[in-house]
Amino acid sequence: MKRRFEHIRFGPGKLFWNPAGFLACGLGTGLVPVAPGTAGTALGVGLYLLIMELPLPWYAATVLFLFCLGIGLTRAASRLLAVHDHPAIVWDEIVGYLVTMMAAPPHPGWILTGFVLFRVFDILKPWPIYQIDRRITGGLGIMLDDLVAGIYAWALLQGAHLGLKFVVG
Question: Is 0.90 surpassed by the pTM of this model?
Answer without folding.
Answer: yes
